[in-house]
DNA sequence: TTGTACGCGTTATCAG
DNA sequence: CTGATAACGCGTACAA
């Protein structure tokens, strides 16, 4: 047997790169047959298949998904953008999302955007350059150019964790404004006439707080004292928040609406350290119903959002888009629920 | 002007895909010049550059990184595998890692492996198919085939969060065994003669615990009561752990070594709920020195590991590899430190 | 069941 | 400073 055509020059680096052609040569078939063996084993003769599999094993061949994506125009990649991966809220959603989506052979390219839409825009562009088959975004505020790029990409785009009438494409979230309002109604119904807030984090937290404050004003004349922190929530800031409320604003009794359970827990700890009864003197409402919320003392009254459900729902609508059949609803409102425990 | 060559047939989908060729046509240059304008603007005439930039803006062109990677044999992609992204320990490391690595133009493809090395093996293969320029792994236990594939890939590989004499390539971690031992010495030195443990999570947690138990036996004859949970740590399990220790094992006084701060916090809460003084009757040692550890009551005595430092160090060694100059140390021991607070 | 030819959108190399 | 031209490794026709 003589070599067909010219010798393919070996790769730049060392011994190297194993390709389907290499595997094919070893198995006595062409590159295409190897490709077929991998994508649909039933389309190649059993005996051939065995030889190909053996060749793959001895060479340690790993397919090049880059080349595959380029040729097929499908990357099997989904990119996801979240403000922060260390924030359990986003991490939990992403976890559920990727578990569901991975079952269908997709991988997740994940990046943190921080809080600046301009940074997000840059990231959207780099992510788009990987030619993802779909994109998952957090929130509904994006720059105009970001929207244009997304639209132009012609792929399913899901905006998660917030809700809007006019999503770029798809949207899975809940109303932060409604959540703030309901918390205010709950607090008023529970009989609290004074209220304060401790907030940190992103713009959505601010929106919940604003809604709480506005709604609480309907129930009580007392001004709502507000403590806001830049950056992310922490137990420490919860403690500082109550300290400021008590020392700086003369807040001695009432309910404190927090933008996260972590802050709420901090408020509880600080209250107890100061000898203030919870909920007797200081009542606390958190947000998120995180794992620990039910198990601290007293249990945290909080706003529950089913985070994994958001990730799963996002995966569903994307898969539905892929599927082509059943076009998914443009907007999915997963809602929230106030769960009353000991703290308020 | 007449059209050169044949009409390139338009893409399958709608109006479609903008390529460098499209941009070039609009700017009156060839595709190659567009490529150059993007990779090294100084190599094209200012006037040309302007026209190209204008064309890019009007077309909304986003480069295809897949094609670029295929041609250049560099994907600018780094894949990372962690047991869980919702675990703050891993999330914090990844965060620091990607911040550092992104400055150099790399993106992170992240996946969760869970706790099974076999699952990890599968994931390593799919990740490798994306032809990453480097790979970040958690821990030092991998299947033989995984090691082979990694070696065969010929890229920098970092094993993070644990330490070994014989890394696949590079290793950035600390000794979990040493950590367990030092905790035992610390506990003994503090005068505790009875000890218990509450553990959850991965194999590394088990190793710390085993080391603690073995070492504590040098100091005291009292058997160490051990409560182990499957799955991940939570506040609730911390509470259950102490409950089991007290009710089930007759543990009424001594120090409890926990595999995470979250568990430790749970133990503290349960102790106080039972009217047991902390650290008077029940002393607690955590692990991780997480944000909240210093701010709960009493402050948690714990083993501090500088998680962001692991991520950064991992980034550094990879970048050093890329750089080619300064070959990085194969193993970096970042150590740990016991920080004594109120709980023990 | 298997193979040939071609294109996917870039980068690398060599000319001009 | 700019342009041809050939890879890069694989999928998709179409043919045998």
Descriptive terms for the model:
344 residues; alpha/beta; disordered N terminus; 12 strands; 12 helices; six-stranded parallel beta sheet; Rossmann fold; homodimer; 15% strand; DNA-binding; 3 domains; four-stranded parallel beta sheet
Structural class from helices and strands of chain A? Answer: alpha/beta
Question: Whole-Å distance between the termini of chain A?
Answer: 84 Å
How many discrete domains of chain A? 3
Helix content of chain A: 40-55%
Q: What is the CATH class of the largest domain in chain A?
A: Alpha Beta
Mean pLDDT of chain A: 93
Fourth-level CATH superfamily of the largest domain in chain A: Response regulator
Cross-sheet strand order for the largest sheet of chain A: 2-1-3-4-5-11
- Topology order of chain A in helix (H) and strand (E) letters: HHHHEHEHEHEEHEHEHEHEEHEE
How many strand units of chain A? 12
Shape of chain A: elongated
Q: How many DSSP helices of chain A?
A: 12
Question: The biggest beta sheet of chain A, please?
Answer: 6 strands, parallel
Main interface: chain pair and counts: A-B, 62 and 61 residues
Q: In the CATH classification, which architecture of the largest domain in chain A applies?
A: 3-Layer(aba) Sandwich
Beta-strand percent range of chain A? 15-25%
Low-confidence stretches of chain A: 1-15
C-alpha Rg of chain A, in Å?
27 Å
Indicate the multimeric state. Answer: homodimer
CATH topology value of the largest domain in chain A = Rossmann fold
């Amino acid at each position: 047997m003589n070599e067909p055509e010219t010798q393919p020059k070996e790769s730049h680096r060392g011994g190297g790169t194993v390709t389907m052609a290499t595997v094919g040569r070893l198995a006595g078939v062409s590159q295409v047959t190897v490709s077929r063996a991998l994508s649909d084993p039933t389309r190649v003769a059993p005996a051939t298949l065995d030889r190909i599999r053996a060749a793959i094993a001895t060479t340690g061949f790993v397919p090049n998904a880059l080349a595959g994506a380029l040729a097929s125009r499908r990357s099997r990649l989904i990119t996801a953008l979240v403000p922060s991966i260390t924030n359990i809220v986003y991490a939990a959603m992403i976890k559920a999302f990727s578990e569901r989506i991975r079952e269908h052979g997709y991988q997740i390219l994940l990046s943190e955007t921080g809080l600046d839409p301009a940074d997000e825009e840059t990231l959207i562009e780099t992510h788009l350059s990987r030619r993802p088959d779909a994109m998952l975004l957090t929130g509904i505020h994006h720059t105009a150019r970001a929207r244009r790029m997304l639209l132009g990409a012609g792929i399913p785009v899901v905006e998660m964790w917030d809700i809007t009438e006019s999503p770029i494409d798809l949207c899975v979230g809940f109303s932060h404004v409604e959540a703030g309002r309901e918390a205010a109604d709950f607090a008023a119904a529970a009989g609290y006439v004074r209220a304060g807030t401790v907030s940190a984090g992103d713009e959505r937290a601010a929106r919940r707080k604003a809604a709480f404050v506005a709604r609480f004003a309907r129930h009580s004349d007392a001004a709502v004292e507000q403590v806001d922190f830049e950056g992310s929530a922490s137990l420490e800031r919860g403690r500082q928040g109550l300290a400021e409320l008590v020392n700086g604003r003369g807040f001695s009794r009432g309910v404190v609406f927090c933008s996260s359970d972590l802050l709420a827990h901090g408020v509880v700890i600080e209250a107890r350290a100061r000898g203030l009864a919870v909920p007797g003197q200081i009542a606390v409402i958190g947000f998120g119903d995180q794992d620990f919320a039910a198990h601290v003392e007293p249990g945290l009254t909080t706003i529950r959002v089913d985070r994994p459900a958001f990730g799963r729902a996002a995966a569903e609508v994307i898969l539905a888009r892929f599927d082509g059949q059943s076009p998914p609803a443009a907007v999915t409102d997963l809602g929230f629920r106030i769960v009353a425990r000991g703290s308020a």
